[in-house]
From TrEMBL:
InterPro entries for the chain: Uncharacterised_PGPGW_TM
Name listed for the protein in its UniProt record: PGPGW domain-containing protein
Domain of life where this protein originates: Bacteria
Transmembrane spans: 36-53, 74-96, 116-136
Keywords associated with the record: Membrane, Transmembrane, Transmembrane helix
Organism: Solicola gregarius
Length: 154
């Protein structure tokens, strides 16, 4: 009985991990936090598969490097914050789903317009603000990507 439970658990985690990966891939081209969902899928797969656990370590290291690089100076911080504000505003516009000028095959409404898309964009902006704050608190004081200040002769 124990072996069948272990097999069922492996199948369940594999199915959930692959589903999250597929949703994350869709989130790369549709509004939403695609990379985070893909990482969650790999993390779920890592619970049962060694190859996925190795990928999680690599992805986590690269994500931490990117987070540290992103808060190395105020310009990068402000650009990231402006991007999050822009996504928030776009989410509100997508919820309203206004009539737009007809463009080629798009028609007179926003593509994928509606509440679900708008809410996912707003959620993405909140995630971006949270991650920006986390990165700032963790990396800004001792950031290895900042240029070393020139020290003159003493």
């Amino acid at each position: 009985m124990r072996g069948s439970w272990r097999f069922a658990r492996k199948i369940l985690f594999a199915a959930l991990g692959v589903l999250l990966l597929l949703v994350g891939i869709a989130g790369l081209v549709l509004p939403g936090p695609g990379l985070l969902i893909m990482f969650a899928g790999v993390a779920v797969l890592a619970l049962e598969f060694e190859w996925a656990a190795r990928r999680v370590d690599f992805i986590r290291d690269k994500a931490m490097d990117a987070a540290e690089y992103g808060v190395a100076n105020w310009f990068r911080i402000l650009i990231s914050a402006a991007g999050a504000v822009g996504v928030f505003i776009a989410g509100i516009v997508w919820i309203i789903d206004p009539t737009i000028p007809e463009v080629w095959i798009i028609g007179n409404h926003l593509p994928f317009g509606g509440v679900v898309t708008g809410v996912s964009m707003i959620a993405s902006s909140f995630i971006a603000f949270f991650l920006l704050g986390y990165s700032y608190r963790r990396f800004h004081k001792e950031n290895r990507f900042r240029k070393a200040k020139a020290v003159g002769p003493t």
